[in-house]
Amino acid sequence: MSLDISSVIGLRKEDATKILEAKGIRVRVKETKPPRTRFKGEPVAWRVISQRELEEGVELVVTPEWIDWLPSHASENTGK
After folding, report:
1. Are residues 19 and 11 in contact, defined by beta-carbon separation less than 8 angstroms?
2. How far is CA 37 from CA 32, 73, 74, in A?
3. Is 72 inside a domain boundary?
4. Domain total for the chain?
5. Mean pLDDT of 13-34
6. What is the pLDDT of residues 30-71, one digit of tens each?
7. By C-alpha distance, which of 2, 44, 10, 52 is closest to 27?
């Protein structure tokens, strides 16, 4: 039975890693970020955007995921 590793694309890094490691597959993670971002601080999570098979396992390429929201006091500044 062959493993369909493409099924982890789109999952969060933690979930994808758990799934693959539970099947005995060694996982290596490579993080990628845009050169400039309007977001400050750390991302909420990392999402798998690509993977490739390696001799020793699988490499997952992940990208940051931020939640874009306005602070609760933002509506006060607009006069609404």
Report:
1. yes
2. 12, 23, 21
3. no
4. 1
5. 92
6. 998 777 666 666 778 899 999 999 988 999 999 988 766 555
7. 52
> Could you tell me if residue 15 is inside a domain?
yes
Task: Give the CATH number of the domain where residue 45 resides.
Answer: 3.30.10
Domain of 21?
5-67
C-alpha angle 57-8-18 in degrees, rounded to nearest 5: 65
Which regions of 1-80 does DSSP assign to beta strands (E)? Answer: 27-31, 45-54, 57-65
Q: Which residues of 30-40 are buried (b: 16+ CB within 10 A; e: fewer)?
A: eeeeeeeeeee
Predicted confidence at residue 60, as pLDDT, reads 96
Between residues 71 and 16, which one has the greater pLDDT?
A: 16
Q: How far apart are CA 70 and CA 63, in angstroms?
A: 22
